[in-house]
Amino acid sequence: MFGTTVVCLIAALQILVDNCLGLRLTNMTAPALQDPRRDMELHCRFDMGGEELYAVKWYKDDHEFFRYTPAAAVSITQFPVDGVHVDRQNSRCMPEGCDLLLKELSRPQSSGAYRCEVSSEAPAFRLASQTHNVTVAGEIFYMELNHDVALVVVLIFLLLTNGNLVLQTSSELPEA
């Protein structure tokens, strides 16, 4: 009898603690360095902690470009922001996360601070957010070395994390 009561109390306490913690943004991923020839993936994971999801909003440099509001008549809304083009067919949001695919990246317009912001419904109205800086870099230059060699492709990537300049050379064109 006593053991059953303790187990029930522990289970009730666990449920109470889980629900009292509320909304938590558990993980956001975005590349630090992005090749403009490739699509960019943004991922945001969250735990509602017993609360109801109101919205997931995505920003670039504090300008909202995407909103997922599951209870709204139109659950997905996009806003124009330079350098940001969401591929709606390959993006998906659900109650525990939101994954976006950005296409047609351009340098420097697509570079910036990308933020995922998650909010809960009334009465709590909690907010959780996380930001990652993304640098879209990579240019292709063609140089004629001599009469026998037509082109040499030099890929230049500036890595802002350590301020290093990395040069990669190839005699073949990269795949687009």
TrEMBL record:
InterPro entries per the UniProt record, alphabetical? Ig-like_dom, Ig-like_dom_sf, Ig-like_fold
User: Domain of life, per the record?
Assistant: Eukaryota
Keywords, alphabetical: Signal
The residues the entry assigns to the signal sequence are: 1-22
Q: Which Gene3D superfamilies does this UniProt record tie to the protein? A: Immunoglobulins
Q: Where is the Ig-like domain?
A: 42-135
| Name of protein | Ig-like domain-containing protein
Q: Which organism is it from?
A: Tribolium castaneum
What is the gene name? AUGUSTUS-3.0.2_06176
